[in-house]
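Incident review: delayed structure delivery

Summary: a single-chain prediction request sat in the queue longer than the usual turnaround. Root cause was a stuck worker, restarted by the on-call engineer. No data loss occurred. The affected request and its eventual output are reproduced below so the record is complete for anyone auditing the incident later.

Affected input:
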Amino acid sequence: MKKNILISAFIIFSLNAFGQNFGFVDTDYILNHMPEYKSALSQLDGLSKQWQKQVEENFDAVDKMYKAYQTDQILLTDESRKRREAEILDKENVAKEFQKSKFGPDGELFKMRTNLLKPIQQKVSNAVADIAKSKYKDFVFDKSSETGMMIYANSSYDLSNEVILKMGYKVEVLEKVIENK
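Output delivered after worker restart:
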């Protein structure tokens, strides 16, 4: 008896799964066919190389100062030694700050990447959504993503509001919070 119930449940769930229409895209392949994407990457690469060269020059200058200090250290007074050590540390801090300002998580390269690539990603996303809707796809996954990331889902499958209500929250309040961000 239990076996029949399990088989029936499996068949019902299988039929339900077949009712959904899936698709996939390879965003790497798509992006590599877009001249504006290649141009953005080229621009980012140029800036990155330029800033990396400056970072290396800054740290080379610190290294030269330190080597000169080591050579002169024996001949320096305590006051001169402390002053030179402070100069070296200041120069090193400036070099680190420059590196962070260009390559850090909130650095110029990250911001530039976001500004250049976001419109391109939005263009791809809009095209995927339009095609998915026209071909009656419920879900579209990205083949190039290691996790098979979903990049489109038919909103009729979104259970978010139901979960919010189930937890005792009001949907309208959350929507206003999201709109204000």
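Verification: Residues 4-15, 174-181 have pLDDT under 50 and may be disordered.
Action items: add queue-age alerting; document worker restart procedure.
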